[in-house]
Design goal:
By secondary structure, the protein is mainly β. The protein has strands at residues 11-13, 21-23, 34-35. It is built from no helices and 3 strands.
């Protein structure tokens, strides 16, 4: 399964002509951005609350 390296949420198949994978989490700064195959998986499992802001850490 492809996941977004920023938020850890599952990525979805992009619509043509891109035909890659992209982040579909609207709360993520990578939303709608193409993900490349070499991007690493997130270091920690995703939080059920979604991405955290620096203030929450």
């Amino acid at each position: 399964m492809n996941v977004c390296p920023t938020c850890g949420q599952p990525a979805t198949k992009a619509f043509p002509p891109d035909e890659g994978w992209e982040c579909r989490n609207e709360a993520c700064p990578e939303f709608g951005q193409p993900l490349t195959a070499h991007e690493p998986a997130p270091a920690e499992p995703p939080s059920p609350r979604g991405p955290q802001t620096p203030e929450e850490r």
